[in-house]
Amino acid sequence: MDLSKILEYQKLDGQLVKIERQIKNNENKKTANKMHENMKEAQNKSVKLEEKAGQLLAEIDKVKKQFKVQEDKMKEFTSKDLSSLSKEEIDKLSGLKDKLAQNLNILDRNLTALAESVNAVLSDFNKTIKIFNSCKEQFAKSKSAYENEVKAVEASQKELQDKLATLAKGIDAKVMDAYNKRRKENIFPIVVPIVNNSCGGCHIELPYANISKLENDGILTCEHCHRIIYKQ
């Protein structure tokens, strides 16, 4: 089987593959994708921090109301005229007053702790916003650089694609279909020679039966990497 045309096609296609891999593995593209992911993470975190801050503020409001209730009760006790009360009533009031004072002290500590938590959340929120803005700026720069690099090779890419389309017209349809199928599977090179009874692509030694088939048919599909093997 004459494979000269498909080999010529593959040689030219190799240049296109090189460009495609350069685009795919472009560092600016990788950076832009990473910055985009970081932006999403920062955005999600900021939403959660806002929710947490809202919960803390609601808790602070609740504690303040409890504090006001206890404070009003304390004022009520301290304003009582004790001269008309018995010793037992005074002792009872004193016990209640101590309990109120204890409650006020606990509520005061709770308010302080909640305030510290709010400040910590706000600080974390501000840091997250800075990270988001920094990533957004880097994303824009990397995306622009990547697009410029892609644009720079567009003409060469189009020229190669046009040449390949012309060459494909002179190649057996079955061979071209087999080639394109493996090309979509990111296999390259696709058509390789047999080398020391092994596949020229994956270098796995071929069984004797396959070597005999190659001798008879001129081509063979590698059972391991699925490349098209030919005998030089």
The termini sit apart by 11 Å
Assembly category: single chain
User: Averaged pLDDT, please?
Assistant: 91
Low-confidence stretches: none
Largest sheet: 4 strands, mixed
Structural classification: mainly alpha
SSE topology string = HHHHEEHEE
Number of strands: 4
Characterization of this structure:
The chain has 232 residues and is mainly alpha-helical. It is built from 5 helices and 4 strands, in the order H-H-H-H-E-E-H-E-E. A 4-stranded mixed β-sheet has the order 2-1-4-3. The mean pLDDT is 91.
List the helices and strands and how they pair.
Blueprint: H1 4-24, H2 27-78, H3 87-168, H4 173-184, E1 191-195, E2 198-199, H5 208-217, E3 219-221, E4 228-230
Parallel strand pairs: 1-4
Antiparallel strand pairs: 1-2, 3-4
Helix pairs in contact: 1-3, 2-3
Core attributes:
mainly alpha
Give a quick rundown of the structure.
This protein is mainly alpha-helical. It has five helices and four strands; from the N terminus they run ααααββαββ.
